[in-house]
Give the backbone structure.
Amino acid sequence: MKITTNTVVTIAYKLYAQDEERELIEETEEGMPFEFLFGHEEVLPGVEKALENLEPGAKFEISLTSEEAFGPELEDYYHEFPIADFIVDGELDEEVLEEDSIVPMEDEEGNIIYGVVVERKLNTVIIDFNHPLAGEDICYEGEVVGVRAATAEELASGDVEGSFNDN
């Protein structure tokens, strides 16, 4: 079966930064491939386009520019907050505000978004809300492990049944 809209796709892959070192960023574990509903915007558009019509056993290499992947790094995504915003029950968690710490924050709609502490000043902290791979050209290398038709339940819920990705 070929990869088309409304199929469940299972892939094993390695994700690299396309820099001088070609740094390995992420990879699926042995026996734990990545599964997703094709055509439901669960992966980057460039990845979907490259995988379309492939069959199980097909190998792939997909290179994406930063603009095609997670976009450029934007200065507008850096925000400065008063340290007082991080006091909970009268106490400040010092570890949360250490440089490079990942901090969960809530947006205006109540959604949790994550940022990285870039700098702590005397009374404020600067947090970067860019995607961790913003500004990076990337490359996926892998293999299509399986393709099957999605069930009606999977299409209705948007979740793959029995997925290796469920935690």
Observations:
- The chain has two domains: 7-70+134-157, 75-128.
- The longest strand covers residues 138-149.
- The helical segments are 45-51, 152-157.
- DSSP finds two helices and eleven strands in the chain.
